[in-house]
Amino acid sequence: MNEAAPAIFVALEDSALGHAIRQSTWAYMAANVGHIVSLMMFAGAVAVMDLRMAGAFAATSPGYVLRAARRVAVIAFIGLALTGATLFTAEASHVILNPVFQIKLGLIGLGLLNIALFEYFTAPKVKDLPPLTPLPGSARAAGMLSIATWIAVAICGRSIAYF
């Protein structure tokens, strides 16, 4: 436990749930594996959507790709949030002070903001376009920013243990 951390994170780590996760033979390991599986599902779904917005898979309707991959991405993101919260709870006071974790949180915020802006401004313009129709520049920009952001989140996630 790191007493330099804000009290709320010390309390979270010291809670019954934090103790249970650390003392369980399976909880932390299962959350870690679940986080990786959720990350793989999320990365795959996001890659398909982002690559389509960036211009790949042009023979497929953008609306179809977005609808199909969005469901997987949302389910996987929920899995990432739940397993990530479990992993965080086990060592909150240490992890919250980690600069790489803080960068990861900021990048997740950027990724979610990009999604919100895309859904509000760009998705309505592309959802009904037929295959082979050029997409607006905003779709390409959102797709490229999304790919870069989520890759950076994954890099930060793997790097937390080393800082």
Average pLDDT, all residues: 96
What is the overall shape? elongated
Secondary-structure-derived class = mainly alpha
Instruction: Tell me the fraction of residues in β-strands, as a range.
Output: under 5%
Instruction: Report the count of strand segments.
Output: 0
The Cα radius of gyration reads 18 Å
Helical content band: over 70%
**Helical run tally:** 7
The secondary-structure element order is HHHHHHH
How would you characterize the overall build of this protein?
This protein is an all-alpha fold and 163 residues long. The chain is 78% helix and 0% strand. It has 7 helices and no strands. It has helices at residues 7-14, 16-23, 27-53, 62-90, 92-95, 99-126, 137-159. Helix 6 (99-126) packs antiparallel against helix 7 (137-159). It is elongated and about 55 Å long. The chain starts with 6 loop residues before the first helix and ends with a helix.
List the helices and strands and how they pair.
Layout: H1 7-14, H2 16-23, H3 27-53, H4 62-90, H5 92-95, H6 99-126, H7 137-159
Compose a concise summary of this entry:
About 80% of the residues lie in helices and about 0% in strands.
